[in-house]
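Continuing the series of single-chain predictions for the mutant panel. This is the parent chain; the variants come on the following pages.
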Amino acid sequence: LTIISWLVAKASSAIAQLPAQELKLSVIVAPLYSMGAAAKAWGDALNDTTGGAFTVKFFPGAVLARRDPTEEFKALQSGAIDIAVGSALQWSDAFAPLGAFALPWMTPGNTQLAAVVADPDVQSKLTAALESANVTLVALGPLRHRDLATQSRVIASPDDLKDLRVRVTGPRLITDTYLALGAKPTGLNLEDARNALAAGQLDGQDQSAAALVAARAWATGTRHVVQWGAFGNVMAFVVRKPLWESWPESTRAAVHAAALMAIDAAQASAREHEAHDALARNGVSITRMTPAGH
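Parent structure:
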């Protein structure tokens, strides 16, 4: 972190004389979540450490794109959004190469996910692909995995998903995986899902641990959470390509260094552990599925 801070300061001093530039920063979630916290930290760092070169306006909830992550990526391409922090998983319907991080069980553990994120070849190929879509990749950070939360059924192996009525949000990739395992995925909105869970009309939901805590999942009958490592997720820090190309190298260095600082500040791993601890304190059993399936 000390080295990153030094890089921010050094790069920022070189761009302090540039005219202030207003940037619209979008993210789909609030700072309550790791990705939202990272986005806010990135914006704050650009506001505070670039000598007035930027005025970053923060737009959580993807309000510049009708609260839709697919539309958010398109808005970034069109110029309605200048910079963004997005979930690779949620953006994958709009830009398929981002779905590589979430291919089922490709990165079943946090160590494997971090290794893929840090792989220079992966970064290079993804950067090139995004460039062709008018978007510049600045940095990547692990967002950990989604969990499977159930009301009464204990999930000990993929076979246990047969006929499971499960709420699924996000890209088609997730829905297709559940269908392939014999489950019955549904795309109910949050309020309808809560009512269905309370009424016994839904057996579970696919969500991050933090989202389960925010929704107080135990209050609607959730009793089991399995960390099955099916879908890894990554946060991508991006800038619309024409804007990035208009900046001198010193500005790019400052923006990149601020993104690295934001990834560290978001503490995705610590937040995931805290969320699982909170679920356990409220009577939810936490199980981690091994490669052997149990």
